[in-house]
Amino acid sequence: MRLDVVSLAPDSLAPLLSLGVIGRAFAAGIAELHTHNPRDFAEGSYRKVDDEPYGGGAGMVLMPQPVFAAVEAIPVLQQRRVLLMSPQGRQLQQADLRRWATGYAQLVLLCGHYEGFDERIRSLADEEVSIGDFVLTGGELPAAVIINGVVRLLPGTVGTAASLDDESHSAGLLEHPHYTRPASFMGMEVPAVLRSGDHGAIARWRSQQQQQRTQQRRPDLFARWQAQQREQQ
Fold first, then answer.
1. Does 161 map to a domain?
2. How large is the C-alpha radius of gyration of the chain?
3. Is-contact 112 137, C-beta < 8 A?
4. Domain span at 221
5. pLDDT value at position 24?
6. Per residue in 117-156, pLDDT tens?
7. Which end of the chain is more exposed for a tag (fewer CB within 10 A), N or C?
């Protein structure tokens, strides 16, 4: 997969190239990361990329020309999706990461900066994405989150691909508890069912724990999962 990030702070994304399994995926050619600085495409000798907002107000606004020029310079692959990092976007879900990882060969991520971006920049994007109801100084951290989440789903990144199927949010529920040796630690015991060797009982226990944990910690997710179960019946 090709990942293109339009950012005024491209160096902030460099750590992804050496980040554990994600870094190894880039080194192995499973994914490739390209950054594009709008300042390199700005007009004038000062390479100006921001200006005061029309109508007045605090802060500076990212100008459309440098961003449009940067996007237009990016090679276009088939099955491309352009994502705009924005606190006004739809909140990121695990299903989005899987959809992008399996359905597209190229993701272009647009990172805002300063007080915001010129409204016309929105026309470049297929989707606007938020990682939560809060505001950051730029879109680089949300872009890094998406890159991490997508690349780990690409074939060959994770050694045991089956582990991705049971983790939190993959099927609408939180993941079940995990235990390893020793069986007893500071008075805390590993549930006997996990040491029983009864794979059917273990599967039932894990399913029950997923439902119980989701209901307790994320009742919103549990209600959504229950509705999906009713629809499938």
1. no
2. 22
3. no
4. 166-232
5. 97
6. 999 999 999 999 999 999 999 999 999 999 999 999 999 9
7. C
* CA 146 remoteness from chain centre: 2
Type of residue numbered 95: A
pTM summary value: 0.88
**Number of domains composing the chain:** 2
The two beta strands, 188-189 and 184-185, are: antiparallel
> Could you say which DSSP state residue 27 is in?
H
CA distance 2 to 128: 19
Q: Which 3-state string (H, E, C) describes 103-163?
A: HCCEEEEECCECCEECHHHHHHCCEEEECCCCCCCECHHHHHHHHHHHHCCCCCCCCCHHH
> Could you tell me which of 154, 144, 175 has the C-alpha nearest to residue 21?
154
Looking at residue 84, its amino acid is: L
**Same domain for 58 and 87?**
yes
Burial of 96 (0-12, 13-18, 19+ CB in 10 A): middle
**What is the length of the chain?**
233
